[in-house]
Design a protein that fits this description.
By secondary structure, this protein is mostly helical. It has two helices and no strands. Keywords: Coiled coil.
Length: about 100
């Protein structure tokens, strides 16, 4: 792979640290908390009526699907962060 460009700027180092901080700082936990509250609102014994039905049958299932996808992608990113970080810091000559 000679000739492959390797570049790591201070902006890249800062960005990876910020991503790690956000992902490891509880963002996925907040998604889990949203899911808990959404499921509670979806219970007709907790909230019922026309708007509750719309929420239960459309709004929440669509939102939950998007949240689940986001959480899966964040978990995948978390698994890749160490490798990404190593690549960025190696290219930039260390810490």
């Amino acid at each position: 792979m000679s000739g492959a460009r390797v570049l790591s700027t201070e902006e890249a180092k800062t960005a990876i640290r910020q991503i790690q901080s956000i992902v490891n700082g509880g963002f996925t936990d907040q998604i889990t908390q949203l899911d808990t509250q959404g499921r509670m609102l979806s219970d007709p014994n907790v909230w019922d009526g026309p708007l509750a039905e719309t929420f239960r049958n459309g709004t929440w299932p669509e939102t939950k699907s998007a949240l689940d996808t986001a959480k899966e992608q964040l978990e995948e990113l978390r698994n890749q962060l160490d490798r990404i970080s190593q690549d960025i810091f190696t290219a930039g000559g260390g810490a």
